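User: Here's a chain of 95 residues. Predict its fold as tokens.
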Amino acid sequence: MDLTGPDVRRASVQLELDALAGIGLARDRVVCACYGAGPCVLGPGLRGLETVDDAVEVTRTYGREPVWDGLGVLARAIVPHVDSPGRPETADVTG
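Assistant: Prediction complete.
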């Protein structure tokens, strides 16, 4: 399964990972292992990722608007694949 930033966040809300992450973090018992779009949900928000990920696809596929708030675990956003040779996202955001 290949989920984009907004789609990963939609899935985390649907699966109630926010509550589980909060409990686990408070107890220092959570490990997050993810790559690509996965770490994006750990930041403060996902705004800006629509530059490279079609957020309209979330609405079209799941019948609901994307969730733009992140989990707030990290103070700064992660933008995966920027400046990565051969990735179309690099050209999308660097012109």
